[in-house]
Automatic annotation (TrEMBL):
GO terms for biological process: translation. Residues 13-40 form the Ribosomal protein L9 domain. This is Large ribosomal subunit protein bL9. Binds to the 23S rRNA. Keywords: Ribonucleoprotein, Ribosomal protein, RNA-binding, rRNA-binding. Belongs to the bacterial ribosomal protein bL9 family. GO terms for molecular function: rRNA binding; structural constituent of ribosome. Pfam families: Ribosomal_L9_C (PF03948), Ribosomal_L9_N (PF01281). One of its GO terms (cellular component) is ribonucleoprotein complex. It comes from Streptomyces lydicus. It comes from the Bacteria.
Length: 148
């Protein structure tokens, strides 16, 4: 099935790309979550608008990405969440939580879709988080999860 990506999907493409995927993957995952729309001749007009929006938001050069990477790695991120007595969280930390904590700590504004958690964060303590700034630049930063 041909689809037009509306957001960046890891391993598949970026917003505005027209890709061919299995029917079930598109119908059950990508389209319902808003990551893609079905490809049509009329939808082809939307591709240019999606690409224009992406150019405004994205980091265009590697130099800009390295600059933002330096800013991110210099930020101490603390995230206060509710936790039980044993240090287990009520729920887990999401990429949106990390992005807002980076902004609150004085770091640059980061899109939540660029934050990659290696595994779900469900315990208190220090954790490593990756932020994909550019195709070739990934910033690694430490996030300290503390009880609220």
């Amino acid at each position: 099935m041909k689809i037009i990506l509306t957001h960046e999907v890891s391993g598949l493409g970026t917003a505005g790309d027209v890709v061919d995927v299995k029917d079930g993957y598109a119908r059950n995952y990508l389209v319902p979550r808003g990551f893609a729309i079905r490809w049509t001749k009329g939808g082809e007009k939307d591709v240019e608008q999606i690409r224009r929006g992406r150019k405004i938001r994205e980091i265009a050069t590697i130099e800009q990405a390295n600059e933002v990477k330096g800013q991110l790695e210099g930020v101490n991120v603390k995230l206060a969440v509710r936790a039980g007595d044993a240090g287990r969280l009520f729920g887990s930390v999401t990429p949106a939580d990390v992005a807002s904590a980076i902004k609150a700590a004085g770091g640059p504004d980061v899109d939540k879709r660029r934050v990659e958690l290696g595994s779900p964060i469900k315990t208190l303590g220090a954790h490593q988080v990756s932020v994909r700034l550019h195709a070739e630049v990934v910033a690694k930063l430490g996030v300290e999860v503390v009880a609220a």
